[in-house]
Amino acid sequence: MVFKRSIAVVAGCAVLGAGTVLWGAQAAPASKPGGAVKLELPPAPAKAKPLLPEAFAGWVMQGAAQNVTDATAADSTNAQALREYQFTHALLATYKRSGETLTVHALGFLDASGAYGAFSFYRKDNWPKADIGTDAASNGNRVVFCIGNTVVDATFSEVGPMSAGELRELVKQIPVPLGNRALTPPILLNLPKPQLDKQTLHYALGVTSYAGAGGVLPPEMIGFDRGAETVTASYGLSSNVATLTLIDYPTPQIAAAQEAKFRDYLKAGSHAQPAFPKPLVDSDQASLEVRRTGPLVAIVSGDAIPDESHKLLESVLFQEELVNIPQPTESEVNKTGRLLMGIAALVIIGSAAAILLGLFLGGGRALWRVAHGKPASSVYEVEFIRLNLEK
Fold first, then answer.
1. 103-120 pLDDT, tens digit each
2. Spans of the chain below 70 pLDDT
3. pLDDT digits (tens, 9 = 90+) for 49-80
4. Which of 186, 180, 172 is closest to 12 using CA atoms?
5. Measured distance CA(299)–CA(86) in Å, rounded
6. Burial category of 310 from C-beta neighbours within 10 Å (exposed 0-12, middle 13-18, buried 19 and up)
7. Which domains does the chain have, with CATH numbers?
8. What 3-state DSSP class applies to 314?
């Protein structure tokens, strides 16, 4: 997905293997006894770490994990939603331990934003939060969590008191990306924090994922074909629950046009085309409101009183911020800075040494002359050249 701006906060893509590609590389001939020539190729790069380990916390993988690159093979029911989140590959594995079974589906995505979106798609609003990975939720013996650009759907045959701790051990062995692929969706930072129910937060990048995550508006109105991305969350206001929908567009101009479109749609009420979805039908019609700030369009719905809904909507403010992108190694900027600092240190040290050496040698000579009754400097001495011509 394309980030339209940089933001402070949040969280790339693990691959199952890496091939060797030689760009214009030439093999270096090496002579052997007898005149034979052996071509020595550069060594192949090490393979990337797989999504799942063969064993962790006493669990041992049974057979080889199934590696799939088709979203339909990974999850036939939600394949289109996975594609919208930019699914790349998956490992499907079964682990055994003391007669117990653990089924693990690890889904890989292009970046951490896609993984978080898929997690929010799978996690239902009433699932309790779990302390595993970046974000997690559980439902009986099923646990869904995300870490980096990977979503893990784990199902225990029997849940024990140490099940969460065992999955935390699994998290340590799942590769995570670095750089801009580790960033979580910037739009999340525009959500007002007070009274936010984080377990109802859903991030969508397409029609299917938006509809499947309980979107408020008709999916075809959002404008996903224009690069829109959405986040929906519930707020426990004092009068009742309100739902806030944020839609992020590539430019403020697109957002302004969509704002007018949404406002006309909400005003149409029962005469709206297409007809109101159930979340809008169940909302207090007086509380429905839309507002734009920068490239963001915010829509409030639900049963809260109009004054509280309006206050929630007004608390949404688009702000551009800078993001600290994790670096896989020392960045080129840091390397250049260290080089310049090293050069400056050498210049300072050399200059100081030259000054001290000059003071030592020059001062020593001056002291010697003074001790012998001569001026400190020889500048003021008048010297004559005498020619002994006497016979």
1. 999 999 999 999 999 999
2. 1-48, 320-331, 376-391
3. 788 999 999 999 999 999 999 999 999 999 99
4. 180
5. 26
6. middle
7. 46-182 (3.40.1000), 186-314 (no CATH), 334-380 (no CATH)
8. helix
